[in-house]
Amino acid sequence: MTPNEVHKIQELVYELKIGDIMTRRMFTVTAATTMREVRDLMRDHRISGLPVLSGTDLAGIISIQDLIHALEENALDAPVSQYMSTMLYTMGEREFAVRALSVFAKTNVGRLPVVDDDGRLVGVISRGDITRGLLKALEKVYHEEEIRRYRVRHVFEDIVSDQTSLILRYEIAHRDFTRAGRASSQLKQTLNRLGIDPRIVRRVAIVSYEAEMNIVIHSNSGGNLVAEISPDLIVIVAYDRGPGIQDVEQAMQPGFSTAPDWIREMGFGAGMGLANINSCADQMHIDSWPLQGTRLEAVIHLNRPEGKAIDESKPNR
To answer: Could you give the domains of the chain?
Structure first.
């Protein structure tokens, strides 16, 4: 199970209401029911506990442990009232499943009676009900996600034109380290929603992050990050308004950086940006003009998921 799946399950536990996942069709007994009848009900229907009613009110719970106690005492003809538990933990049908899980963790009970706003018994909930509810909710989430992904993946097929592309534009502020990385993160999220191969998404994320950080660190007044997505490739273009690159070939060397010391102390400007972009892109081109700025273009083909290898031992900042 991936971290994202674990996170989704945690979210669902806090979203699922007990009334939506509890067992409504249930067997009940009264205080006068014999333990023999309890045994037969539990055996025939494979259940481990039964609510005990007094009229329409919940009076107690009789569990399989109580039945075992009665069997040990050879008291199958004794009434349920002699063995049932009257110390009850109940759940409201409007409460969330996470509270039931908390009660299960703190007690040894196997199931919990569920009552409505008037205190009337409307169902029971067990750990199994929560598990089944989560699985059903996950199935629904993944089904909806697959439908959405399918629709998005085929968006280009539904548009009639000679050339179709989706253009995303992000404004990048100069020296705004609080929001640094926001554009590349949003681009990554969009590509995931488009159903792009995760390997492609990873390469685009690295390219866009490095290009974004270069604008944040080296520009004089910010710049733009533009991603053009077409059926066959993704083109990322980064513009900055800055001093320009004096020697592009030297700037491409791993470890070379013109970032000031204070930026290096923050963990940025390690001189791996352009090298990492070049490693992840299928093609890369830089135009730079002194005292005007720099234009970087990186192309990633969608039919080449792996692309060129990137050295994972090098920092991406």
So the answer is: 3-133 (3.10.580.10), 164-301 (3.30.565.10)
